[in-house]
Amino acid sequence: MIRASAIMGSTALTIRNLSGHDHLISYGPCIQYVRWKRKPLWLSTAKTKVFRVPQRPVTSQEEFEKIKCLYNNYRTSIKSIRSFLINKEAANQVQYDTASIKILANEDFIKCNEINEDWNKQVAAERQQRLAAEREKRIEDIQMKLEAKKERDLLLQAKVDAEIRKAKEEASSFITRDNIDEAIKEALYTIVDHNAAIDLDGTFYKEEHNANTTV
Q1: Which residue spans traverse the membrane (predicted)?
Q2: Which residue, 30, 63, 100, 101, is the most exposed by fewest CB within 10 angstroms?
Q3: What is the distance between the alpha carbons of residues 24 and 15, in angstroms, rounded to a whole number?
């Protein structure tokens, strides 16, 4: 709120303009006044200037002739600029006619289509080369995998054949239903002596027994 002590010395116009607005900025004990640079447009004419008739400026004949010459030069320049712009716009209208624009658009489309076709052919050739290289590489990889698998199969077959051969060799000593009686007799007549010695060189020393001795 604006206090009367803060606005003493101000005119009524200033007070009316500042009423309802916080235009007084306080910095401690100092008050800063903010005044209008000019009279606001929404305010009415002052009472002291309502019936004031302004004096018409008096211009000498020489000054009037000078001003008239400058104005004529200005008007001539403006007419020249206007005529230049009108002529340029008319030329642009002729140059950018609908039919001309359509013809230029068709020519541009044909040119862009040709460029696009050239790019498509170039990309297709590069794609064919890439696919051919990838196909050859894939065939080489498949051949290498087949050769590796063939080698593995051969190694596995050799291992299986060795196992089968070994099993066949060991099968001759197996006890079957046909030779079980012979195996029992051989086991009964075979002397097994567990009293044996071995030296540092790995030689076994066994006690000799009479062959006619039975268990």
Answers
A1: none
A2: 30
A3: 11
